[in-house]
Amino acid sequence: MVAGLGQYGVWQGESLVTPQLARELERLGFGTVWLGSAHGDLKVVDELLEATTTLKVATGIVNIWNDPADEVAAAYTRVQSRHPGRFLLGIGAGHREAVGAAYVKPYQAVVDYLDALDAAGVPKDARVIAALGPKMVRLSGERSAGAHPYLVTPDHTAQAREILGTGVLLAPEQKVVLQTDPDKAREIGRPRVDRPYLHLRNYVNNLRAFGFDDTDIADGGSDRLIDALVARGDARAITERLNEHLEAGADHVAIQLLTAKGDDPIPGYTALAEELFA
């Protein structure tokens, strides 16, 4: 299993993670920052690791259709040589709707990509796979350090742990809103769930597999669905929701803090850190 990620990390789009933010997250005690929609050249990874001393950086994810495995492997080797043991390569097949006609046999495409990473010397324990369905979850345990599921509930975490068994990394993402008013929290969370995720087949199919139906998915998502996917409340209430993933078998939870447009996220991360690391 990958060591040193900490129980709690931060998930954020790559373009929004600056060296300054990385330093602040490290200071607050978060073990890892996950870069959403990461570029395979890993230049941002270099910048963030150079700006910090202990923080680990993971990609969540590098899309296998966008970045050739040999180029990603070369970038991995560069980062690893400069910052040994502080980078975790997350890869995944993305979404049919975004990739288009090239999206053919995604499971086999991931297998082929892993074969290429093997040939280029990227170690199994230095990579994770974005996994939702049981087949991909199982593959993540067989061919990588573990699974990084996105937009999932603790019920999914429990199922994934059962599939993976012990000693394999399970690091789900969890959206949170620091807002005690349910309506205000949903106003922030619903748009971030609806677009694009409620219009992407793989996420919708996964939600249906865990008991949500067409009425939950329609019209931006039912209150029941949004409340299941976006933890809300004060820092203590959110900590309790995050810990449901740990109790279900997660080793690490990647926290995606959602805020109103234009709000500085640092106060929110600070409030969470004070509760999480008390």
From TrEMBL:
Superkingdom classification of source: Bacteria
One GO molecular-function entry: oxidoreductase activity, acting on paired donors, with incorporation or reduction of molecular oxygen
GO cellular component: cytosol
Family matches, as Pfam families: Bac_luciferase
Transmembrane segments: none
Limits of the Luciferase-like domain: 20-119
Name listed for the protein in its UniProt record: Putative F420-dependent oxidoreductase
Protein's organism: Antricoccus suffuscus
Taxonomic placement: Bacteria, Bacillati, Actinomycetota, Actinomycetes, Geodermatophilales
